[in-house]
Amino acid sequence: MTIQSFLNNRVYSTLIGTLFILMLSSCGSNIKDVGLAELRKDIEMRKGPCYGRCPVYTLRVYEKGIVTYEGERFTDRLGIYIKRIPEEQYFELLETFQKVNLWQFDDVYKGDIPDAQTVSITYIEEGDFKSVTGKDGRPDDVMKLESLLESIASNKQDWVLKQKPPSAFPDYVITEEIIVQLPEEVNINKWVRKYRKNRMILKKQLREESPYWLITYDKDTITPKEILDKIRRDQQVQSAEFNKKTKWRT
Q1: Which of 98, 100, 154, 194 gets the most CB atoms within 10 Å of its CB?
Q2: Could you give the domains of the chain?
Q3: Which residues, including other chains, have CB under 8 Å from residue 178's CB and lie 6 or more apart?
Q4: pLDDT tens digits along 84-134
């Protein structure tokens, strides 16, 4: 299929979709009521965590110019936000992806900076898809695609909250504090230094001669779930759990 015929088909599809959205609007509906499961997804960009405060989010571009932003960490848009970009911008984006032809590139590019953010860009066409993932060292054309998608994500106008972020922990859980149980032979000060990247601090021993220690960490370096999973996988740790407000302690 040629680029022109491909785009013509999408133009027709988008025109029909636009009429449908206008009909919904006339009935009192709005953009947040658009059913994403009924739309064809064209493009997706996932930006993962890094050592620092890199915004972690997933941007998805659907037919008819519908775009969603799913913010996870270090962004003022947590949850799923939705908007519709101008038709001209949508088709220019598709045409650019067609010209770049992601299929010519490797699936994964290894970077030289381990703590840099990992970015994955996916393009879907006629049921087939191609993803390119990496940190630094990706081809220039792939980086240009990332810049185009970043410009959509960073434009804060017209976003509408579609779905609030899930509450990962009950209100009584103190996710900044973790109680760890260590064997007697483990030096607690040396153990804490293993997690210096997460700025872990020993607060206190819960009881004298007790194997339980209360520690804190910097939530800007890692999520509560990630740090708890990381500690529980530590071979020196016998148990680990978040601290709880007094009335909820068992």
Answers
A1: 100
A2: 3-163 (3.30.1560), 173-248 (3.30.70.60)
A3: 214, 215, 216, 217, 227, 228, 231, 240, 241, 242, 243
A4: 999 999 999 999 999 999 999 999 998 888 888 999 999 999 889 999 999
